[in-house]
User: What shape does this take?
Amino acid sequence: MTATRKSAQPRAWQRMLSGRRLDLLDPSPIDIEIDDIAHGLARVARWNGQTLGPLPFNVAQHSLIVEDFCAELKPGWPTKWRLAALLHDGPEFVIGDMISPFKAQLGGQYKIIERRLQQAIHLRFGLPADLPANIEALIKRADRASAFFEATQLAGFEAAEARKFFSAPRGLQPITLKTMTATQAQRAFLARFDALIKAL
Assistant: This one.
């Protein structure tokens, strides 16, 4: 083996179905395509697949719920922030949905990669690389509300346990979850994205 081969860095890019080659360590907004995001998120299972029913509950459907919750919590919220809510788990189209307990153990490097991907996604679609703190806080509130309903309806959590980890949803109408197929979720995600982009 040559010295060059010994010192070669491991591949850090992922080829996407669009043909783009996305560098995970230094992602460029020009390598981000919404079709790749929708395709990936619709095929990533929430809760590592530990949910009831014949279908995994996917991240694309979760993202739609979070965007809808943000609109319910903040009627008249600017369209660009609703777009940010829809894309809040965008990096997972290429790095997957790491469950929170494991993500906490991985720490720094994982968070850096996730943040760089999120910044590239934001810039690609005309959002600020880093969202204002109050915008992130509302999206996080909607995210936790969705997690509460998912936990209690699909992931086997008792209500008291879910309240401990995710807090009880406030200011939102309860929802009943019906898991979409990957194809349904992908189409719904793209339709919502297109509607928001046209409304900007």
